[in-house]
Amino acid sequence: MAGTRTGHIIVLGLGLTLALALTSACGNTAEGVKQDSRENTEKAREGAQAVKEETKDATPTIGAEAKDLGSAIKQETKEVGSKIAGGAKEVASDVAAKTQTLEVKTALLAAKGIDASHIDVDTDAETKTVTLKGSVPTTDQKEAAERVARDKASGYTVRNLLTVVSR
User: Fold this and answer.
1) What are phi and psi of 114, to 5 degrees?
2) 0.90 exceeded by the pTM?
């Protein structure tokens, strides 16, 4: 039995040695984890500080860029608005010219004593000019057509290019 007991003591001794070694290793491992945590925490603080500094340095630049961009957008918007206004004026002018053409032609067709079947009326919005082209059978009709056009196209210059052709 003494051999068994010696064996148990040896096993027990080995067990205690192993337990102490593991406890020491666990202690070292736990200490290592704590140390790693402290180091990682410090690195995270340093990284956060660096980001804070970079953000602080970049803020004025970003603000200036945003202001410049806003100014550029404002300028482009003004230019687009001007072009739209110019286009609208041009369209309005063209519509007014077409209206003048129609009014003069209608008045010529309705006028007694004028054969307007061979009269063309053109209106130039840019120069505000009404032009009578074509032909009429008499000089009196040519003069009457010009009078009708002047009466209907106030604010416009009237050019009478009508020719007298007997029919």
Assistant:
1) -125, 125
2) no
